[in-house]
Write the structure tokens for this entry.
Amino acid sequence: MAVTIKDIAIKSGVSLATVSRVLNDSGYVKDETREKIVQAIEELNYTPSAIARSLSRKQTNVIGVIVPDINNPHFGELIKGITKVADNANLNMILCDTDESGEKEIKALKLLQEQRIEGIIISPTSNENDSSREYLDTLKNLGIPIVLLDGDVKNSNFSGVFLDNIKGSYEGVNVLINEGHKKIAIITGRINSKPAKDRLEGYKKALQKNKIEVKDEYIFYGDYREDSGYELTKKIIKLKDKPTAIFLSNNMMTLGCIRALNEAKIKVPRDISIMAFDKLQILMSLGMNISFISAPTLEMGKSAMKLLLESLKSKNKAQVKRIVLSPELLLNGSEKLV
Amino acid sequence: MAVTIKDIAIKSGVSLATVSRVLNDSGYVKDETREKIVQAIEELNYTPSAIARSLSRKQTNVIGVIVPDINNPHFGELIKGITKVADNANLNMILCDTDESGEKEIKALKLLQEQRIEGIIISPTSNENDSSREYLDTLKNLGIPIVLLDGDVKNSNFSGVFLDNIKGSYEGVNVLINEGHKKIAIITGRINSKPAKDRLEGYKKALQKNKIEVKDEYIFYGDYREDSGYELTKKIIKLKDKPTAIFLSNNMMTLGCIRALNEAKIKVPRDISIMAFDKLQILMSLGMNISFISAPTLEMGKSAMKLLLESLKSKNKAQVKRIVLSPELLLNGSEKLV
DNA sequence: ATGAAAGCGCTAACAT
DNA sequence: ATGTTAGCGCTTTCAT
């Protein structure tokens, strides 16, 4: 169907090898013949087949990226960072959205393996998904470089770029405490997500450090989606012993929380205070004074891709490297105790 | 390096063909041999190479999707819709973000062609990018089905799913007029974008219909990004003859507009009214009463993928089909003239 | 400077 | 029910 290298060879009266040479700028080709070939390529509108090339070269120049939710600006930014570095390295990318589902994560991994990608950057949905971890291990043993981004995987030893989540929520909760809050609720992610776990830990640590009792009634497990933030906030504001502040473990749940508060006509920080993980640019644009614990997402994406690039270059024997970046505190007033 | 079908064949003492048969569930294989093979596959941890398979089958089972900005929730939703249908059809997807750049659009098209994708869904950045259109034409002539989504391409005749943009902004502006507004500014997209053009046209139509003069000083061209909405709004509120309402042609610019208004302490709709294209779920979550002209994005994505599926099935001779969906008016109060 | 030919991993006739 | 073999489109060694 499509035009092949053979057609070009015939049309320009040379061999396949010579065409391949001009295609790849390799070896010697007389200027005259090169021109003939280039012309034939243009006339026949030839485009090389990456498929055939990959098979022959035994390399695809494609990497795989797996994230739980493309529509979440947090991952959007990570992806932007990855893309920037990947583009420069002339690597193409297959992007997989797992929709926060472990099952789809496995599917994505399988897809990527079948496509013979050179390496993988993954932001795992959960860190206790055993089948997912096993698959990652298998891939690693097959010599495929894996770089974790933003989420860890239990009992594993992959390179990766992470955020110091414990530190982040510790500091965030500390700010609340310093403002005078003693009753602080937390909406964290699924218990099997490492970042969620760490963010909860930082929360507890801050309370303990300040000799404030950690109350189970104040700990709520969401699923990182907006709706769970909404529902859990509704629960929180119905609590008999209502907290004076809510600590939120991710951006989407923060949105849900704000929606619930709005509906209940509860004003921040007049009626309740808020401290939230993951900056929401939009809220800041809107002049909503929510205080954030913000991750350097673009930077994280870039770092992850650079790590992958290193592994790709040094082939098999790249060492495991784990980079931990610190979040930044953006105080805008929502943490105040009025 | 990797395990191949040959290794499986050897290990289980059969021929390549037989292994291929169990892999593809085609032809007859004795249960006994099948088991041997399946076992070998598991033991050696074999995963077929999509590359080799594609080359041999002359089909990749991959489609390409090109959008101007993954991080824009509008396109995020379109992609979700596409993905849903594509998943069901067992088609994989290469997603390309052009960053609103015509150049990157061409690059993406080339990449997709090299990857021998089966079809393309594209949301074009501009409709006057001649090289882009030419490339699309070439691909179409090569027998690759093209489906436009949400944006048209000048002088072309591709299938596609579109929004009735003229109708949308006509109705939106009409609402403003009915509220009593006479001085209505518009921030539209780049002049070479079809949707932007149509949205401007609907705006003009509504004014003319109501015998309101169309004033050039009230027409502003942005680039669909937040910053341009911000900058242009700042200009608008400095106008001597300040408009009482602003009509916005997309979601990102609306954000910028709101940011500018916030900074200037201008309240909506008390001081100025707003009507905006593209629903921003976030604003609604936040209880901000902005009125929208909203596109059925998920539906549009699905429709586009279904269209592509049809073309894929009927091979070469699918006819051009253009689906136009109507936007929905979501009135929340920001259109009021106070 | 160019060509011949083997091979990348798989599929799909065709044979047996 | 299974095997043989000729490609798929390209790269790359080895000749010439």
